[in-house]
C-alpha cells in the first residue's frame, strides 16, 4: 500500500468520525437532561452494550471475522477504557467546566509525552507548533472559569493519564496483534460495558444525588435512549477506526474540531450566546488544525519510500518498537 492510498483512507475515516459524532451531539433536550442530571455513566454502559450486540449480529452475518487474541490484554484494555470514562465524569463533577476543558486540552500533550517516552516516537517541531496553536485556540474559545480544588485536580490527572494510555493502547493493540478496529471493539466492548454498568449507577448517584432507575422513563425518553444507543454504535466504531488508522493525537485533534463545530453550529442554528473571544478562539484553532494536517501530510513518507512495514503516518514517526509494545501492552492487564 503506497502512502497516497493510506492518506485517502485516513481522510474517509476522519470524515466518518466527525459526521457521526456531530449527529450524536444533536441529541434532544430530554435525553440531554438524562445525561447531565442523572445517568451519564450508566447511559454510556448501555451504549457499549448495544454496540456489542450490533457487532455480534454483524459477526453472525459474517460481515467481519472474529480473531481472538490475548485475553488478558483485551480484559485489561476494556476495564481501563471503562475506568477512564468514569474518571472523566468524576473530574467534571468535582471541577468547574473551565477546568474540565483544561483537562481535555491536556490530553494531547500528555499523549505526546507518553508516546515519546515509551515508544520513542518523534514529533517534529512543526507538528508541536501546530498542536500548540490548536490547543491555544480551543482554550481561548472554551475555557472560562478556572476553580481549583485538590480532589478535582487529582481526579483530572488520573483521567488524563488513563485516557491517554487507553487511546495509545487502541492504536498499538491493533498493530501488534494485527486485528481490525471492529475485531478489537467487539472483544473489548463487554468488559467496558460491564465495568461502567457496575460502577455507573453508584457514580451517577454520587455525583447527582439521584437514583438512575428512579428517572421518569417515558416513551419519549426511551425512544431517544434507543436512538442514542444506535448512533453510539457508529461513534464507537469510528473512534476505534480513527485511532487505529491514524494516531491517538490525530483523534484528539478531531475531538477539538468537533468542539469548534458544536460552538459554531450552536451560534448559527440555535443562536446561542457568542462572543468575539469564541470567534477568535475558533479561528485560531482552525488554523492550528490546518497546520497540523499540512505538516502531517508533508512529513509523510514519499511513495518511493513505501514498504509493507509502513503502518502508521504521524508526523514522520518511526515504527513502534516491538519490545516496548510488549512491555506496554502487557503492563495494563497486570494492573487489572
Strand content: under 5%
The overall pLDDT, averaged over residues, is 78
Which residues sit in consecutive blocks of at least 5 with pLDDT less than 50? Answer: 6-30, 304-336
- SSE succession: HHHHHHHHHHHH
Total domain count: 1
How helix-rich are the residues, as a percent range? Answer: over 70%
Structural class: mainly alpha
How many DSSP E strands?
Answer: 0
- What is the radius of gyration? 20 Å
Distance between the termini: 37 Å
Shape: globular
Total count of helical runs of at least 4 residues: 12
Main sheet characteristics: none
Subcellular location: Membrane
Main location: membrane
Protein name: Sugar phosphate transporter domain-containing protein
InterPro entries: EmrE-like (IPR037185), Sugar_P_trans_dom (IPR004853), TPT_transporter (IPR050186)
Summarize this structure as a short list of keywords or feature phrases.
single chain; 336 residues; mainly alpha; 12 helices; globular
Structure overview:
- It is found in: Membrane.
- InterPro entries: EmrE-like, Sugar_P_trans_dom, TPT_transporter.
- Residues 39-293 form the Sugar phosphate transporter domain.
- This is Sugar phosphate transporter domain-containing protein.
- The chain crosses the membrane at residues 34-61, 73-92, 126-144, 150-172, 184-203, 223-244, 251-270, 276-295.
- This protein has 336 residues and is mostly helical.
- It has one domain (3-335).
- Helices cover 78% and strands 0% of the residues.
- The protein has helices spanning 3-25, 29-60, 71-94, 97-105, 107-119, 125-142, 150-176, 181-208, 219-245, 248-270, 276-298, 322-335.
- The protein is globular.
- The chain starts with a helix and ends with a helix.
Amino acid at each position: 500500500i503506497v502512502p497516497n492510498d493510506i492518506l485517502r483512507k485516513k481522510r474517509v475515516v476522519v470524515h466518518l468520525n466527525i459526521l457521526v459524532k456531530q449527529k450524536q451531539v444533536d441529541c434532544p433536550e430530554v435525553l440531554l437532561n438524562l445525561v447531565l442530571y442523572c445517568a451519564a455513566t450508566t447511559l454510556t454502559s448501555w451504549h457499549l452494550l448495544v454496540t456489542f450486540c450490533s457487532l455480534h449480529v454483524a459477526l453472525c452475518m459474517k460481515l467481519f471475522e472474529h480473531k481472538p487474541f490475548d485475553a488478558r490484554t483485551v480484559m485489561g484494555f476494556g476495564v481501563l477504557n471503562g475506568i477512564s470514562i468514569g474518571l472523566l465524569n468524576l473530574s467534571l463533577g468535582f471541577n468547574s467546566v473551565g477546568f474540565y476543558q483544561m483537562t481535555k486540552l491536556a490530553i494531547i500533550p500528555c499523549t505526546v509525552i507518553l508516546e515519546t517516552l515509551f515508544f520513542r516516537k518523534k514529533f517534529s517541531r512543526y507538528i508541536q507548533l501546530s498542536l500548540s496553536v490548536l490547543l491555544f485556540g480551543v482554550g481561548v474559545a472554551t475555557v472560562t472559569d478556572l476553580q481549583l480544588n485538590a480532589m478535582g485536580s487529582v481526579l483530572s490527572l488520573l483521567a488524563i493519564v488513563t485516557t491517554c494510555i487507553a487511546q495509545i493502547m487502541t492504536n498499538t493493540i491493533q498493530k501488534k496483534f494485527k486485528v481490525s478496529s471492529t475485531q478489537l471493539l467487539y472483544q473489548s466492548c463487554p468488559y467496558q460495558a460491564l465495568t461502567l454498568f457496575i460502577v455507573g449507577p453508584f457514580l451517577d448517584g454520587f455525583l447527582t444525588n439521584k437514583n438512575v432507575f428512579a428517572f421518569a422513563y417515558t416513551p419519549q425518553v426511551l425512544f431517544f435512549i434507543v436512538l442514542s444507543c444506535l448512533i453510539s454504535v457508529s461513534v464507537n466504531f469510528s473512534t476505534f477506526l480513527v485511532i487505529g488508522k491514524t494516531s491517538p493525537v490525530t483523534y484528539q485533534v478531531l475531538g477539538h474540531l468537533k468542539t469548534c463545530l458544536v460552538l459554531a453550529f450552536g451560534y448559527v442554528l440555535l443562536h446561542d450566546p457568542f462572543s468575539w473571544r469564541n470567534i477568535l478562539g475558533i479561528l485560531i484553532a482552525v488554523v492550528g488544525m490546518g497546520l497540523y494536517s499540512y505538516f502531517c501530510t508533508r512529513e509523510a513518507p514519499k511513495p518511493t519510500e513505501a514498504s509493507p512495514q509502513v503502518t502508521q503516518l504521524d508526523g514522520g514517526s518511526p515504527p513502534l518498537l516491538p519490545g516496548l509494545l510488549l512491555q506496554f501492552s502487557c503492563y495494563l492487564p497486570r494492573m487489572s
